[in-house]
Amino acid sequence: MDFTFITPDTEKELKAQLSDRGSFLMAGGTDLLVKVRIGKIKPRKVISTLKVSTLHFLEDKTDELVIGATITHSELMKFKPLTRDFPILHDAIFTIGSAQIRNRGTLVGNIVNASPAGDGLLALYLLNAKVEFSDGSIIPIEEFVIGPGQTTLPAGEYVRAIHIPKDKWDIHYFEKVGQRNSMTISVASVGWLIKCKNGVMFSSERGGRTIEEFRIAYGSVAPTVLRLRDVEEFAKGKHIDEEFVHSISEMVKKDVHPIDDVRGSAEYRKTLCANLVYRMIEEEVKC
Amino acid sequence: MKVEFKVNDRKHSIEIKPGELLVETLRRLGYKSVKHACDTASCGACSVQLDGNPVLSCRTFTAAVDGHDVKTVEGFSKEGELSAVQKALVDEGAVQCGFCIPGLVVTAEALLKENLNPNEEEIKTYLNGNLCRCTGYVSQTHAIMKAAEIRRSSTSVPVEKRGESS
Ligand SMILES: Cc1cc2nc3c(=O)[nH]c(=O)nc-3n(C[C@H](O)[C@H](O)[C@H](O)COP(=O)(O)OP(=O)(O)OC[C@H]3O[C@@H](n4cnc5c(N)ncnc54)[C@H](O)[C@@H]3O)c2cc1C
Ligand code: FES
Ligand code: FES
């Protein structure tokens, strides 16, 4: 392991350092360090972003939340506007590893890692988040991730921040199914956001309320996190009832393409994904 | 490369390899409470506090802690006297082989700093990265609740009074 470790203070310096071949960026290092230790990547230079003060910020604007590149999961979870405006992101990152991992790991590290099991990534897919590069361009998260560990980040650039547009959702749900409760990569994960026409109702009530907008995404069941657009389209104008959930469950089964691996067979994961939508019936709030 | 950082308030200025892990450096410096156990970020035995927050020293490059404050379990017992958390762990029979305990103590101390009245669920959630292969966690959870109680009663003394007595 013969590399140099650099800690630039400014973005200008960071950019200059990045131009060398064999340079790797590191934030919390919870992903990168493993790859270096097992020899999967052989860096000539590791550049820590943690001392670049202009990357350490959280900006709560009227129409969006902007999260700087070195903000850790723990810092984000303690930020009040997150729980208020983006509870789905809070719930998702709360399941990442352990307190120790969340104290080091960053949201930007989570997206650049581009794992199909990335929990932060799944919430960001649902929220139509955008990624800001150091060259100033901003692209949708779904165009940023193209495969396991693969992104469209141009060589010599870095991710500056993540932008999440503000929007009001009546129902949010996140669940990760793993072999153990903590520390494991999920067998499958799911999240949904629902906007109801004329507000929500509780299980005991009957009413004419319907789904106005619906977003659903799965993790660990395809090369990237997957948004199920056909289900989202189908859901518009429907009620959350047995019939509806049964129909989308069938659609989910066709949409997801999990693989067989040590964590579960493809068949099991397909069934699991299809069954997870029945949580909509169990939840008290509906439309 | 050279780095400078504090461990339990003591300054260290040392030569390290860029790929050196914090757990390796700490043990080299004599802080043997920090265990290099699973080396896969799964067990929590290597937990230390970095600027007050628990992190895994087997997943932290020493190079990245340059200029920062590290705290190991040695930093919690004053002059050989056990801290409230340590005492409670002993009293509740929550220590068997003891391998997990240093990491558990530094993590529990961080929890109590954030929340001095944690319930069982909150303790389990916060400590889900600290595995123990001996005790089954019940006694450890109770010990942390007990330590919290002791600390609550000692901090509930009105501020003026504390000022007077010191
Ligand atoms: C025990 C354990 C449990 C875990 N559990 C989970 C889990 O439950 N769910 C989950 O989603 N993840 C999990 N992870 C993975 C990991 O912790 C997260 O993905 C974390 O968010 C990564 O952040 P980091 O800052 O540590 O990334 P780093 O390791 O620092 O970086 C990750 C990647 O991003 C690149 N990078 C970093 N910053 C930038 C930047 N500004 N611009 C461009 N590229 C950059 C790095 O070069 C690297 O390729 C776990 C990891 C461990 C070790
Ligand atoms: S040795 Fe670090 S988590 Fe096990
Ligand atoms: S006491 Fe033996 S591992 Fe916890």
Structure description:
The complex is a heterodimer of chains A (287) and B (166). Chain A is of the alpha+beta class. Chain A folds into three domains: 45 residues; 113 residues, Uridine Diphospho-n-acetylenolpyruvylglucosamine Reductase, domain 3 (2-Layer Sandwich); 116 residues, CO dehydrogenase flavoprotein, C-terminal domain (Enolase-like, domain 1), CATH 3.30.390.50. Chain A is built from 13 helices and 16 strands. In chain A, the strands form five sheets. A five-stranded antiparallel β-sheet of chain A has the order 4-5-10-6-7. In chain A, strand 14 and strand 15 form a beta hairpin. In chain A, helix 5 packs antiparallel against helix 8 and helix 11 runs antiparallel to helix 12. The longest helix of chain A has 14 residues. Chain A is globular. Chain A starts with a strand and ends with a strand. The model of chain A has no long low-confidence stretch (mean pLDDT 93). With 166 residues, chain B is of the alpha+beta class. Chain B folds into two domains: 75 residues, Roll (Ubiquitin-like (UB roll)), CATH 3.10.20; 71 residues, [2Fe-2S]-binding domain (DNA polymerase, domain 1, Orthogonal Bundle), CATH 1.10.150.120. Chain B has six helices and five strands. A five-stranded mixed β-sheet of chain B has the order 2-1-5-3-4, with helices on one face. In chain B, strand 3 and strand 4 form a beta hairpin. In chain B, helix 2 packs across helix 5. The N and C termini of chain B lie far apart (44 Å). The C terminus of chain B is likely disordered. The complex binds flavin-adenine dinucleotide (FAD) and FE2/S2 (inorganic) cluster (FES) (2 copies). One FE2/S2 (inorganic) cluster (FES) binds next to loops of chain B.
